[in-house]
Amino acid sequence: MWITPARVFYHGLLGEPSLRSMGSVTVYVAVSGHIRIQMDGGEWQTTELAVVPPYVPHQVCADSRFITLMQFEAESVRLPALPAWLQARGAVDAPEQVQALREKQLQLSQWAACVDLDTLDFDQTLLGSALPSKPMDARIAMVLRHLQQDPAASLLAQDYAAMAHLSFSRFLHLFKQEVGAPFRSFRTWKRARNVLHHVVRQDANLLDVALDAGYPDSTHFSHSIRQIYGLKPSDMFAGSRRLRVHAQTASLTGA
């Protein structure tokens, strides 16, 4: 798994096809055969590649136990300017794109032990070009930097409103307008995403992980992780024991 502040690439176990809802543009690619995807309680679709917009509840199952996944943080890209296949919703008929991404996955697997991923640009490496970044109100961009640097912070929305020199109601309205999601949903997603940095800790105590990630207790932690990833935290950690994780530091809007 390759994690940057604005992107994730994952190749590994899919897990059970439980309902999940993640705050990114999420791309699923079948490792072999096909995947089946259901979005918002609609019909199941069979495909080799599927795209799920941010915060859309969905279920995924696959012919293989494994999946290739990419995530692009919604606030980091200009959604209307993305390539057509990335603007899709659900199954995408793009065999050339599927083949290219499968080849990239194999290439990254070969590089994992000998290439410093910090020297690579995520978009250029996996897509061949940079995705268009999203212009952002400077006050909201400042708040996003704080949330990105410390997603576990206990600050309230009112604190961030004061930081941005905005009234509370104006802050909530502007945040949703700029980011595309309510403040509470966005922070919930960022905290859950931050848990990815802990999944290969062999001695991980789930309560310690929960507190480190900003959750008040293990009950809130378990509920949030199951709602977002469709997995119990214990299952998520157990399925990641052999996973190689590389976390990369980058700018807010950069890959």
CATH class of the largest domain: Mainly Beta
Strand order of the largest sheet: 9-6-3-8-2-1-10
Count of helix runs: 9
> If classified by CATH, what would the architecture of the largest domain be?
Sandwich
Share of residues in strands: 15-25%
CATH homologous superfamily name of the largest domain? Answer: Jelly Rolls
Oligomer: single chain
Low-confidence segments: 250-254
Explain briefly what this protein structure is:
The chain has 9 helices and 10 strands.
Description:
It is a single chain. This protein has helices at 95-111, 122-127, 138-149, 157-163, 168-179, 183-194, 206-212, 218-229, 233-238; strands at 2-4, 7-13, 24-30, 35-39, 45-47, 49-52, 58-62, 66-73, 90-91, 246-247. The chain has 255 residues and is of the alpha+beta class. The protein is globular. A hairpin with a 2-residue loop joins strand 1 and strand 2 (7-13). Residues 250-254 have low confidence and may be disordered. The strands form two sheets. It has a seven-stranded mixed β-sheet with strand order 9-6-3-8-2-1-10, with helices on one face.
Write the layout of secondary structure elements.
Layout: E1 2-4, E2 7-13, E3 24-30, E4 35-39, E5 45-47, E6 49-52, E7 58-62, E8 66-73, E9 90-91, H1 95-111, H2 122-127, H3 138-149, H4 157-163, H5 168-179, H6 183-194, H7 206-212, H8 218-229, H9 233-238, E10 246-247
Parallel strand pairs: 1-10
Antiparallel strand pairs: 1-2, 2-8, 3-6, 3-8, 4-5, 4-7, 6-9
Defining key terms:
7-stranded mixed beta sheet, 2 domains, 36% helix, alpha+beta, Arc Repressor Mutant, subunit A, 9 helices, Jelly Rolls, 255 residues, 3-stranded antiparallel beta sheet
